[in-house]
Automatic annotation (TrEMBL):
Coiled coil: 127-154
Entry keyword annotation includes Transcription: no
Family annotation (Pfam families): THAP
Organism phylogeny: Eukaryota, Metazoa, Chordata, Craniata, Vertebrata
Domain annotation THAP-type: ranges: 1-76
Protein name: THAP domain-containing protein 2-like
Database matches in PROSITE patterns: ZF_THAP
Alphabetized PANTHER family for the sequence: THAP DOMAIN-CONTAINING PROTEIN 2 (PTHR47696)
Organism listed in the record: Paramormyrops kingsleyae
GO molecular function: DNA binding; zinc ion binding
Keywords: Coiled coil, DNA-binding, Metal-binding, Zinc, Zinc-finger
Length: 180
């Protein structure tokens, strides 16, 4: 079956060599009604294989964005020059607003990246500070280990001296008992 445009007074037909796009009327009921209403065809009930060419869209292509002027076809043989100019102006306005939104998004993204860089820098500073604290704590731990080792040595020495003294006393008392 040959694709031909369903718009009144349009004789465009699909050809592989042509760059003109063709679009099937939408299945979505609300959007389909908008398209059919825009075409102003009386007592017309299009089938599932009904096509419209890109010529009837301001940009030459349909859009799925409900805010885009080409969400519904608007250029027809009955469209006045003033309405065609209005449609072109609406498309330009839409494209400018999309550009502004993109710029805002890029700026917002740049701020996010900048915040991340600041946070990263702060994180690096925090990490450096933590490394310094760890070094200090390790030095303090080593010093305390050395003190504990020294005290243990002194304790062992003192214990040996006490044991030696106790043993000597025991032997002295034993010798005194034996000599008596």
């Amino acid at each position: 079956m040959v694709k031909s445009c369903c718009a009144t007074d349009c004789t465009n037909r699909y050809s592989k060599k042509s760059e003109l796009s063709f679009y099937r009327l939408p299945k979505n009921k609300e959007r389909r009604i908008k398209w059919i209403t825009a075409m102003r065809r009386n007592n017309w009930n299009p089938g599932s294989e009904t096509w419209i060419c890109g010529f009837h869209f301001v940009s030459g292509k349909k859009s799925d964005d409900p805010l885009h002027p080409d969400y519904v076809p608007s250029i027809f043989s009955f469209t006045s020059t003033a309405d065609q100019n209005l449609a072109v102006n609406n498309l330009e306005k839409y494209l400018r607003s999309q550009e502004v939104c993109k710029k805002r998004h890029v700026r917002a993204r740049a701020v996010e990246v900048q915040d991340t860089e600041v946070q990263t820098e702060e994180t690096h500073n925090d990490i450096s500070s933590l490394h310094e604290q760890i070094k200090s704590l390790n030095t303090e731990c080593q010093s305390l280990r050395e003190k504990v080792h020294k005290l243990e040595s002194e304790l062992n020495t003192t214990a040996l001296v006490l044991i030696t003294m106790i043993v000597k006393r025991c032997f002295t008392k034993t010798d005194a008992v034996i000599n008596t």
